[in-house]
Structures are given as structure tokens and as C-alpha cells.
Amino acid sequence: MSEFTEIICEKQGGICIIKINRPKVLNALVPSVFYELNQALDEIEADPEIRVVIITGEGRAFAAGADITYMKDLDAKGAKAFATHITSVLRRMESMEQIFIAAVNGYALGGGCELSMACDLRITEAGTKFGLPETGLGIIPGFSGTQRLTRLVGLTIAKEMVVTGKKIDGVEASRIGLVNKVAEDGKLMEEAIDMANQILKNASLAVSYGKEAINRGIQLDMDSAIDFETNLFGLCFATEDQKEGMTAFCEKRKPHFVNR
Ligand code: CO8
Questions:
Q1: Among all residues, which ones are annotated catalytic?
Q2: Which of 48, 104, 186, 245 could serve as 62's disulfide partner, Cβ 3.0–4.6 Å?
Q3: Which of 151, 123, 150, 132 is nearest to 215 (CA)?
Q4: Where do the H-state alpha helices sit in 154-200?
């Protein structure tokens, strides 16, 4: 993959590992991080081998938020343009076929927490601090945090986190359903790769359709959402992997998926 400045991208077989690379400022997020991330997404989409993307942070944070020194002097128009750019990249991740895992180290505050919430899965360590502290800076979460947190953990907890700005640790984040798993200390990347490998074992079109059915369905009324799922379910039966998966079961052997 290309060499970047604000991020580090490394391909390991079917997995692409992206590290946010501004460790001196705890990976505080500026527009250039998202320009590079968007370019990396172009390369990922063009590479049929990559099926899982792990996003993590270099150093002692996943990301301690949008860069406050950058945002300080923005006017209303500039702030909206900044938020619009970043949210379009996050939305793109949700619409891609690949599964995104956030391996959340150290701090996921403000925009960092919002980036992690745009991923499909989150794994962290017990001591990691999550939070949306924006109201303490005179703003609200602007990278879709009010929307994604509410959808992930429900109105009650989302409102409390937004209006108090309180930070929670990885164990609490797991308890409220904000993260999927708390890894043993020091084993975050190992366990994230393990999670990626569990996904890679499955039929790739089925995995992507499952993501699409959930992400699109949650925006629809129940009847339309069920229609949407039913259509994708039907499409699975047009794949070679459906035939192979079910034949392998009947023949009592492991399937050999060809991702078609
Ligand atoms: N922006 C800019 N610099 C930062 C940020 C940040 N968000 N976070 C940390 N840094 C810098 C510090 O200023 C410091 O730099 P320096 O060494 O030059 O002084 C360096 O990173 C290390 O940080 P600390 O010395 O503070 O490290 P500590 O271990 O003492 O504290 C904390 C770690 C608790 C994470 C602390 O740094 C902190 O509170 N950071 C800010 C957290 C925060 O408020 N984040 C939310 C930001 S707002 C946001 O994300 C809005 C998103 C939506 C935007 C909408 C579009 C306009």
C-alpha cells in the first residue's frame, strides 16, 4: 500500500492494519488524517484480497479527539465543512464491503470515539478511556457521535454521556454495549487479528451482505428492512460459496470458500 504521513497502512493477507500516526498529540484528528484515510479506502476497495480493516492508534491513544488547536479558530462555515468532510469518510466505511474493527488503545475521546463508532466492531483494553467530552469545549459531537452512540447504546446512556461529557473505561464500555470485547492487557492487536481471522473464515459475500442488511435495515421501517434482508438472503443463493458451504456441511468437511 502507499506510504502515508498521518497514517500507517500495512497489509497482512486479507487484513489491512491502519494506524493513526500523530502520537505526539495523542493522534488528535486533523483533515489530512481523513484525506489519507480516504485514499487508503480507495486502495482497499481496489484490492479484492482485503476483507477486514483494523484501525488503531500509534502510541498511547487511539485518538484523543479532533485537534483542538485546529478547531479553535474555525468559524461556523469552516466547522461545518470540517464535520461534513469527516462524516463522509466515516459513512463511506459503513457502506464498504470490508468489515472494520477498531482496536481501541488508550483514549477514544470526542472524534476518536466517533471514529471507533463508525467501525463495525470495537475491541479495547480495560483501562482505555472512552467519552464524548465536547460539551466541555463549547461544542457538540460533530462526527455523527450523537447519532451513532444513540444507535449503539440507546437514548438513556447516550444522553448522559453527551451532556455530562463523562469518560468511561473499557469495562464499562463493554457493559453498555459500546465495545464488543475487552482484550487482555497487552493483547489488543493479537485479539483484534484473531477476531479478523474469525471473519475471514466465513464466506465474504455473506459477511458483506450481513453488514449491509444491518446498516441499511436500521434506517428503514421494519417491513422495508425485512424486504431488504429477504432480497439479500435470496442473493446468497446465487453464490458459489452458498453451494460450497452447505455441501461441505452435508459432506462433514470444512468449506473451501472462493469468495464468489
Ligand atoms: N487536540 C489537540 N491536541 C491534543 C488533543 C486534542 N484533542 N489531545 C491531546 N493533545 C495533545 C496535548 O495538548 C499534548 O500536547 P503537548 O505535549 O504539546 O502539550 C499532547 O497531546 C499530550 O497530551 P497531554 O499532555 O494532555 O496528555 P495526558 O496524558 O496528560 O492527558 C488526555 C490525556 C486526557 C487525553 C488529554 O490530552 C485530553 O483531555 N485531551 C483532549 C480530549 C478532548 O477533549 N477531546 C475532544 C476534542 S473535541 C472533538 O473531538 C470534536 C469532534 C467533532 C468535531 C466537529 C467538527 C468541527
A1: 114, 134
A2: 104
A3: 151
A4: 155-164, 170-175, 188-200
